[in-house]
Sequence to fold (286 residues):
Amino acid sequence: MQGTVDGFSYGLVTPLVAYLMACLGGALGLRCTTRAMTVTRSWRPGWLALGTAAIGSGIWTMHFIAMMGFTIEGTPIHYDRAMTFASLAVAIVMVGTGIFIVGYRGASGTALFTGGTVTGLGIASMHYLGMAGMSLDGRLEYDVPTVAVSVAIAMAAATAALWAAGRARGFLWSVGASLVMGLAVAGMHYTGMAALNVHVHGTSDPTAGEPAAALLGPMMVGPLALLVLAGIVVIFDPLVVMGGPAAPAEHKPGVPAHPSVHRSPARGRLRARGPVEHRSRTPQRR
Fold:
């Protein structure tokens, strides 16, 4: 029996909140990626790892907030805990691979294409692995061309977001990049859901897994905590909070902010001696 699928059982609440979470994760993650391109190599892995955690947590949270508004008529939906955690791990690993490629090689050329492709595939893998963790009294089928379109949307939008992050010149660039990253996740998610067909058996309730409210609510605490941590670190730069590299000499305490003018040693010695008396060269009469 063909099941009736409803992805908006709470109206526009879940899509809007999900999109905002994707934008928040993208904003923090891309900001960390941009910051990584301006620091020394010793600080770069830390910024890139934080950006990876922020983006991975943001897209995972977005997916399952959207899934809270997903219902199928005729059968309840349960989720497998291990598969749900695996989708988060896959998102972080694959997105991290793409972020580190762009962070070390730059947001242009082959590095940008490779990093954007891997990041987009990470978003898609997280989505379909999370869908595979659903347990219901029925069978899921996907329209292959629509699935291909959803993966292409994720790769194209992720590449565009990384490109914008690499050329960020101010607040508007950062906002634009995060909106594009949110579009990559949300566009991929809802296009993938449009490819879904459900055949309900109508025989019994699923015995495996846990209900969405009981499982996903507590599981979101960790990713949300990571987003909060990333936000705090972005606001309070660790190079300042943790003491980072030494400041330039002209900015150290007790040193003038303006560079000193180079003077010849002779003039320096003359000034050190104080004013010189001007004597007349006219011979004195005795």
Remarks:
- Confidence is low (pLDDT under 50) at residues 240-272, 276-280.
- DSSP finds ten helices and seven strands in the chain.
- The first helix runs from residue 13 to 36.
